[in-house]
Structures are given as C-alpha cells and as structure tokens.
Amino acid sequence: MSRSLDDLLTEYFHPEKLKAAFKAYEQQKTDFFKQGEPKVQMGVDGISYQTFKKELDLRCQLISNRLFKGTYQFYSFREIEKDKPSGGKRILSIATIRDVIVQKVLYDAIYKEIEKDFKATPRLDKVSFAYRKGKSAPYAASLIHYYIKQGFIFALDADIVKFFDKLSHEYLFEIIERKFGQDTIATKLLRRFIKTGGLPHKNQHGKTYGYRFFHHHKPIVNNQRIIRTEGIPQGGVLSGMLANLYLHEFDCWVINDLSKKYSLRYVRYADDFVILLKQKELISIVHQEVAQKLEDIKLQLHTDESKTKYVDIAKDFLEFVGFQFTLEHIKVKPGNILRFQERIIEKIDKELSYKTGKNFERRFRFFIKYVINRKVTGRGEKKCDVCGGVLGERVKSWMGFFMVITDIQQIRELDKWIRKEVSKHFYKNYKLRLKKSDFKNAGLITLEQEYYRLHKRKKCLCEKPNCSLSQMNDSKAIQDTGASQTISWNFIGNFLEIIFRKLFAL
Fold first, then answer.
1. Which of 106, 72, 481, 457 has its CA nearest to residue 267?
2. CA angle 444-445-451, nearest 5°?
3. Residue 445: which of 390, 399, 389 has the closest Cα?
C-alpha cells in the first residue's frame, strides 16, 4: 500500500500538478461578485501573491525538485488571532503560498486512502461530518433532527478542551505510521507539517505584525518562533484531515463498543460532538465513559457546564453546528441570525458611498438588485448545458447553508427585518417612504423565496456529483436514517401554508 501511495505522490509532485493546485487556490480566493484580484494571504517568507504568480513556473519547478529529493521543509506559520463565534479567541496559522499548494496536493493524494477508514461501514460513514467531501454541517443537522424524531431526546453536548492545540504528537505519529508506513513520503511530509512552528501575531512589546511586515523583515531568526511540541496548526486543509484521523479510533469505539451497551446516536463535527440517548439517567454514565476514553487518547472534556452540557430537548433546546434543535424543528441558532443581521447593517451603512446618482428611487432599486439580492442568493450556480441541473457544491450563501431548517417563521421575520432596516435608511437619508410593494417592484428576492427555490432545484443528472449538494438533495444519501423524508414533509407543510395564506388573503 505505502509503495503505491508513494508512487501516486511522486505523480502529484510534478510542476504541472502544483500549478493546477495554485490555479484552484487562486479561484477559491477570488470574490465571486467583484471578480478582482484574489485575496491571498502572505506568509512569513514575504512572498506576495503577485510575485508568486509572476514567477509561477520557476517556483513550482523548485518546489517539485525539493519534494522529489525529500528535502522539502515547511516555513513557520504566521499566526493570527480571530474571534470565535461562541466567544474567546482562536489562533489561525497562515501558511506561505508555496506551503498551501503542497498541503493541497498532499491532501488530494492521500484523501481516498483515509476515506477508506471513515467509510468502513455505512454507520461509521455517518458519524464524522467536518473536512470530508460530501459531508457538511447541514447534513449533520438533518440527521440529528431525525434522531430526535426517533425519540433520542436526551443529549450529551460535548466539547474537547483546546483540541487543535493539545493533540498528542506521539499518538498522532503512531496513527500516521500505522496508516502510511514508517519511512514513506506521506509520513515524512505529515510529520514535518505537524512539527512546523509558528510566529506570534504580536512581538515582545505587544505590537501586532501586519502582513506587509514580512516584506522587509525576517523575525523568524530573532528567537520569536514558537516550537510546536503538541497540537496542530489550524486553518489548512491538512489540519482537518489530521483531526479526523486522530479521532477515528474514538468514533469506532462509540459505534462498535459504547452503542452495544447503550441505545444511542452519535454525530461529530471536528472536535464538537453530540451523543443522543432515549433515557435521561444514562447521560451522566455515558459522560463518564466518554471522558475516560478521551483521556486514553490524550484528550480532555470540558468540565465547565457551559461547554459540556446535558440537554433535555423536551424542556430546552440543543445547539450544534450553528443550528438549534427542538422536538419539532431545526432552527437557525440565534447567534447566527444576529451575525447575519450585522452583515446586512454593514451593507446598508455603505449605501451612501455608492455612486449611483441623485435619483433616490434609482438608488433604492440599485441597492436591492446589486446588494441585498446578492447577499441573499450568494454565489451564482453553474447549470449543466445538457439537462439544466445544478452542478457543483451547494450555494455559498447564508440561506444555502441553512436550507435544511424546518421553522420557516424565522425566515419570514428576517425578511420583515430587512425591509424595515432598508426603509429606515432611505427615509432617514433621502426622505423616501417605502412600502412592501416598492420592494416587490424593485425585484427583491426574499429569504423565504430563496428557501423554496433551493428546495425545488434539480441536480445534474448527467453525472453523479461528489459534493454536499448531492448529499442534501439525493434521498439515497440518507435513506437508512429517514432524514430526507422528515425534511420533505416539513417543506410540503410550509409550502401548503403559503398557499392557504394567499387564499385567505383574497
């Protein structure tokens, strides 16, 4: 196995493959609407996107040579602080452009080999939903909703203490060597990636480094570099894959051992997971066994009740991967609604800066068509020229992510809020009074309209897509759980409600 994988890796390390990886990365970082220069971050080597692209052929050849010789080393990561949605800070590791390309190529080469373990059984395949093709947070949410409908209404909502920062290198290296061999190309590169240190986002005096700082300085040589003895860098494609690999033994234990002792359902997204039970008294027992198993693999559960929680879904709600669950519905987590509203407010505040003339009605129509509608629909969809079906991944939009919710009232309230905030802005600044019919005449696409449109889409029938869109639309993807049936009935109920409302309005 290792020899054939090494052969595959050498094939992936050719300059043309590296150039293709750069082009894909470039496209990924390009704003769909602006279509300007990609927002590619700079690493500690000080090489900008413009410079790298200009010298692409030469740089890919140099990278390829080092990979073939086995001398390739990763640069230290440029580490930055980001706010976590749940509060607190997260350290993200920004790699150099060349290291990003190598990570992507290595990921593509070993992905199928790792997926064999995750897909060993149909039940195991429906456990881990992060960093895997065809899996997603919405897909995980739909399964949890179905499990609740089955009567699994008592939840252990678990959170691991500083998972990415505390992973045991010794344990992870053992897993990698068992999987890829001790002296293979894949093992050597993964070990180097894991051990690569970082450069703090602030210097000794608390001053934050701007990315342009690395154009002129090499702070990596002045003893500021962080030596990584545990944990893995967050932010790259390899990080998520390694996280899943680390927790795979735990997944197998829950499915093969723990579930034989207790009737349960288990869903994991990265380092967050939920275990659903039918009996309330079992939560604390399962909690103790889970905590002990995690200690066996050098991890620890949060003891804080705000982090690791017991939830009786009949009395309270469960929150997981951005969704909120009750006995009846999948909803959008309130925090996600608040962040969406904040982004809409940001768009409204920028309206005054748009150079669209002094005609207030024209400004309003422009704002609805080119700002609000684009925010609602997200990235455009690619359709098949043959069958007219949708190609590629699910829509990259807020509604595209939350299309599995079943409580449509949340969406209606958001639509009302958007109209209210836009109306307030145009009256305050232009004394323009707006009615609901004005929004309709301007071509406003509401979140509710987008919700139903997304559910009525047809996927491409010419070839089987390998993306999350196919998972969400193809009933076969979740037929053994029945989750798609639950979503379909909720969708039909919401649709009939709209028809009745319109009839009675007449």
1. 481
2. 160
3. 399
